[in-house]
TrEMBL record:
It comes from Streptomyces siamensis. Transmembrane segments: none annotated. Residues 166-227 form the ANTAR domain. This is GAF and ANTAR domain-containing protein. It holds the Pfam family ANTAR.
C-alpha cells in the first residue's frame, strides 16, 4: 500500500515539474493563468473545473476559467459576497473547502444552494500568493460531493504554490516589457522634438511632462502621439 502511494506521489512530482516548465514557457500573463487552471483539472484528483479570481475592494474579477460554469460561480461569489474563494482572498486563508454542496452550509448558506444549481457537488479555494504579492484564489470544483480527500487538498496546495510563483513571474516579465516599451517611445518622442523643434534634451522632456500633467494623460500616451504625428504637444 505504501509502495503504491509512493508511486502516485512520484508521478505527481514528475507532472508538477512538467507543469512548472510549461508555465514558465508561456508568453503572457493570460496564457499562464489559462494553463494553471487546465493543469489543475489534471493534477488534482476529482477536479472537473477550475478557475482563478481576484477580489479587490469587494469586486470579484475572473482571470481564468475552464468553462462558463466557473465564470458563473465567480459572478455568484461577487453578487453574494460569500464563498470559499472570496474568503480565501479577503481573509487571507490558504485553504477553504466545502465537502458537500448538497447539504446545508452554515457559513455559506446562500452560496452553496446556487452552486448546486450549477451542478457542483464540492469545491476548494486556495490562496495564490508569494512573499511579495497576494494574487488571488485558485478555485477547484467537482460535480460530485465529498470528492476532495486529504491528498487532493495537498496536491491543490502544492499546485497553488507553484502557480503563484509562475503567475508573479509572468506579471513581472510583462511589467518589465511595458516599461522598456515606454522608455523606447519616450526616447523616440524626445528625439523628434529635439530634431524638428530645436529643443534641448531637458526641454524636450519638460514638454512631454507638462503635456502629460496638463491633459492628465500618461507620459507614454503623449510620447506615442508625438511619434505618430511629429507635432509638438500644445
Amino acid at each position: 500500500m505504501a509502495h503504491e502511494s509512493g508511486e502516485v506521489w512520484q508521478k505527481f512530482a514528475v507532472a508538477l515539474a512538467d507543469m512548472a516548465r510549461d508555465l514558465l514557457a508561456q508568453d503572457s500573463v493570460q496564457a499562464t493563468l489559462d494553463r494553471i487552471v487546465e493543469h489543475a483539472t489534471v493534477l488534482i484528483n476529482g477536479c472537473d473545473e477550475a478557475g482563478i479570481l481576484t477580489v479587490r475592494r469587494g469586486e470579484v474579477s475572473a482571470l481564468a476559467a475552464t468553462s462558463d460554469v466557473v465564470r458563473m460561480a465567480d459572478r455568484i461569489q461577487q453578487d453574494l459576497r460569500e464563498g470559499p474563494c472570496f474568503d480565501a482572498v479577503t481573509d487571507r486563508q490558504q485553504l477553504y473547502a466545502i465537502e458537500d454542496l448538497r447539504q446545508p452550509h452554515e457559513r455559506w448558506s446562500s452560496f452553496a444552494p446556487e452552486m448546486r444549481k450549477l451542478g457542483m457537488g464540492s469545491m476548494m479555494g486556495f490562496l495564490l500568493f508569494t512573499d511579495e504579492d497576494e494574487l488571488g484564489a485558485l478555485n477547484v470544483y467537482s460535480h460530485e460531493p465529498r470528492t476532495f480527500d486529504e491528498s487532493a487538498q495537498t496536491a491543490g496546495w502544492i499546485l497553488a504554490s507553484h502557480a503563484a510563483v509562475a503567475f508573479s513571474a509572468a506579471r513581472t516579465h510583462q511589467q518589465l516589457g511595458h516599461a522598456l516599451e515606454t522608455r523606447h517611445e519616450i526616447g523616440e518622442a524626445m528625439g523628434i522634438l529635439m530634431e524638428r523643434h530645436g529643443l534641448s534634451e531637458d526641454d524636450a522632456f519638460k514638454v512631454l511632462k507638462k503635456a502629460s500633467q496638463d491633459h492628465n494623460i500618461k507620459l507614454r500616451e503623449i510620447a506615442r502621439r508625438i511619434c505618430e504625428t511629429g507635432e509638438k504637444p500644445t
